[in-house]
Structure formats: C-alpha cells, structure tokens
Amino acid sequence: MDLELHGRLDELQRDPYPHYARARRFTALEHVPELDAWLVARDADVREVLRRPDDFSSANALRPDVMPAPAALAVLGGGFGGRPVVVTADGARHQELRAPIVRGLSPARVAAVLPYAAERATALVDRFLSGAESGRVELMAAYARRLPGDVIGRIVGLDPADVPAVVYGGHRAEELLFRPLTEDEQVVAAQDVVAMQHLLDAFVRDRRADPREDLASEIIASVAPGDGELTLDQRHDIVAHLQNLLLAGHLTTTALIGTTVLNLLRHPRQWELLCAEPERIPAAIEEAARYDSALQGFRRVTTRPVTLAGTELPAGASVFVAFGGANRDGGRHPRPDEFDITRTPRRHLAFGFGVHGCPGAQLAREQLRLTLEQLTRRLPGLRPADDRPVTMRPTLIHRSPRSLHLVW
Questions:
Q1: What architecture is domain 3-407?
Q2: InterPro entries recorded for this chain (predicted)?
C-alpha cells in the first residue's frame, strides 16, 4: 500500500462515520479503495451478510492492512500458530473451533470469574488513586489494558505473571498486521509475537501434562483427545486457537472500556446522570457499544456470484461488513449520531450477529459494568484533561483512544 493510500486509510479509520453515512446514502454498495473492499454499512445489509455465511466466507476476516516484510515473515516462521482460527473458519470447522469457547465463556463460567474481576477492578482503581500523580491518570495504561487481560487470563488458566507478556504480544501482533512499520520495526514486533507464542506453547504442554478446570485444558482436549504427548501440528493448532481467543478477549474489551469512558465524559450531563442514577449503567453500556463500536467490522469474501443491495458481486469479492456503520443506521436507531444513555436500547451489532456472534459479549459487558460502577462511585468528578487531547487509534479492529488522560 503506497503512502498516499495509507494516509487516506488512516483518516478513514480515525473517523469512519462520515464514510459510513455516505455509503448508506447510495442504493448500491460502494467500493472503497482504502479498504480494498465493498463497504456494507446499512443495518439490513450487514445482517443479510451475517445470515449467509455460506455465501460470505470469513476466510479473510483477519487479512492484514499491511503485509509484513519478508524479514518479518521469516521471524514469524519460527513461532507457532498460523492456522485457521474461529474468526477465520467456516461451516463445520468453525463450529468445532467455537464449541469449547462457548462452553468456556458460558454464563456459569462468567459468573464464577466475576468476584476476581471485581477484585482486580478495585485494585487497579486503588492503585491510580494512590499514585504519585494524584488527581490525574492515563486510563488506558493504568486500567483498560490491564483488567481484560487479567480476567481472560484467569479464565484460560494462565499464570498471572505471564499475563503482561501475553497482552503485550497481542498488541504487537495487531501493530504488525494493521500499522505501517519500517522493516526493522516489523522484525522487532515479529520477535515479540513469537516470544508470546513460545510462552503459550510451553503453557499448552504443561497443561497437557497437568490438565485443570480451565478453558485452556478444554481447548487442548477438543483439539487432541486423550492424554498422549501433543504432536507439533497439534501444538500449532492449539497455540493459534489460544492466541486468537486471548487477543479477542483483551483487545476488544480494552477498546470498549476506552471508548465508553471517553464518550461518557465528552457528554458531561450524561456522565452526571449516570453518577446520580447508577441503575442506568446497563443501558449506558449498550448505548456506548452502539454509538462507537470497539469492533467496527470484519471482512468477508464471496464464495460465489451474489447480489447484495442491488450490487452484483463476483466470487472472490471482498466486502467490509461495518458493524459500526449499521449501528449508526437511522432506519434502526432513531437519532443515530446522538449519544444518549436514556434511549430504549435496540438490538445493535457491536458484538456481531449470527454464527460468528461474539461468545465473549457477556464477559465484556460485565467488565464494563464493574468499571462504570467503580468510576461513577469513586470518581464522579472525572473529566478529560484539557492539556492532553484525545486521538483515536487508526484501526477498525479495536477502535479506542490511543491514550485517555483524565483528571478529577
């Protein structure tokens, strides 16, 4: 991708909503060069794509915006993974990969981890309240990038001491695939990703020898029934599966925490209302997820010639299914560009829909609930720092503030 095109892609990613609005005004689909895909931004059209997984494959869901250089690819070749995962699989293979995750993130499992999540949320707020720079915090680093990793790590069964390395490796994987880096920077990022993969491989082999009541043991058993030593192929499959689960489990929730707090504080009257009436927190979560979705969308590729929104698409056509665009569609959500926690929630697409709907949606909502309960109760005077303007990270995968400096 040339520099000019990448500059336009950055602009689109930092504020995609004007592009969605323009696409919705057309009867037919619009092909967007920056995305190298047809943009699907109306609620009805997005739902149609998600209802037709046989026609719109997920195989390219994680196609990189920036293809790593050969030197970086060579480094990645020394790691683990590179296999189809639940996000990129279709049909029976998708159901096979998804089943242990659905069981592992069941309502009972989520309920069981909530006391730990509440304890961690309290401890993280305690830490920045008592910090040396009292009265100011950068929320992304001090809280939003920590709680989700701790929680999904607990469910998977990771040693808490290993969670920071896994979280860091996840962020580096996202940078490597979706940000323009120099070749030397790509190599270093690839080394960080491979270090995470080797950590996960050691963890997987340990769990095979000593299975426990955790999600990792369940995934290992689903890939390799029995108790024999894992083959190299099985280790690759399991590490790929775990890496995808862990990244989805912390990156998306981190982004959702950041965008939710940002939009609440940008609307002071709504923040004050939430502090006065914390029973509104569930509705506020749904409105925040709808208004500025952390996961803006995924790619799909047509498996045969299809017609969508009056547009004839050949087999192999790439479409970008914009959950964030559908969530601003006035045909479903009145006053779609207004942030209003008092609105009656309607079913949005912030967590996807259909066979690929996010199995961790309830876990994300619970962590956001705990976060807002902490902040509204303990820091009702919270507000954005005037001297540190907010910029959004240029990505449609995990949309969030790059940093979020707050004062009270």
A1: Orthogonal Bundle (1.10)
A2: Cyt_P450, Cyt_P450_B, Cyt_P450_CS, Cyt_P450_sf
